[in-house]
Write a structure and sequence with these properties.
Layout (H helix, E strand, L loop, with lengths): L1 H17 L4 E5 L5 E4 L4 E5 L4 E8 L4 E8 L3 E3 L2 E7 L9 E4 L6 E2 L2 E3 L5 E7 L2 E3 L4 E8 L8 E10 L9 H18 L1
Parallel strand pairs: 3-5
Antiparallel strand pairs: 1-2, 1-4, 4-14, 5-13, 6-12, 6-14, 7-11, 7-14, 8-9, 8-13, 10-11
Length: about 180
């Protein structure tokens, strides 16, 4: 799973670094690739999808990525990436999260005078068909270098099967035994 998340992060970072505007790329289990420019980002997801969403974030700006489940599914850990300049000072001002006032900064910033990069994660969770979730982004301070690139990537899977309660077979067996005992008597 770590290798998959690393590949997802790399793909998201490359997408952010080369994107000039918002885009969503969805790779589904059937091998179909769906791409669409989107502003703001809002797209449907299904089990078996690999999703990459990229956008730009202006200084003191906000942005949202919204996803709606078409069926019951589990969202993996969400890998987040950012690309900026000025040795990463602009990326240090970016916050993200699941609430309208995001508070989580990037956990790792790799400074570079030309193009700095940053990473972060949000925890995975389950969704029912029709449910949606939004990743909120905010730049909390003005940046001397301007716009930064942001991206989110994740996998979706089927929810685990709900196990049959152990008491049900025992109850059925007990009732059947009572029926046999009564019949013999």
């Amino acid at each position: 799973m770590n290798k998959i998340l690393k590949a997802a992060f790399l793909a998201a970072t490359l997408a952010v670094g080369t994107s000039a505007s918002a885009a969503v790329v969805v790779f589904n289990a059937g091998g179909t690739i769906t791409t669409a420019p989107a502003t703001p980002i809002s797209t449907d997801i299904s089990s078996g999808d690999f999703v990459i969403a990229t956008e730009t974030l202006d200084p003191l700006g906000t942005n949202t990525f919204t996803f709606t489940a078409l069926n019951d599914l589990v969202v993996s850990t969400i890998a987040l990436a950012g690309v900026g300049t000025n040795t990463g000072a602009d990326l240090a001002q970016v916050r993200f999260g699941f609430t309208a006032t995001p508070a989580t900064p990037f956990s790792s910033i790799v400074p570079n005078p030309d193009t700095a990069s940053a990473t972060g994660i949000l925890p995975g969770f389950s969704l029912l068909a029709g449910d949606s979730f939004t990743i909120f982004w905010e730049s909390v301070a003005p940046s001397a270098s301007g716009t930064v690139g942001i991206a989110a990537s994740f996998f979706t899977t089927d929810p685990p099967p709900i196990p049959l309660p152990a008491a049900l077979p025992l109850l059925a067996g007990g009732i059947a035994l009572l029926g046999l005992v009564r019949r013999k008597a």
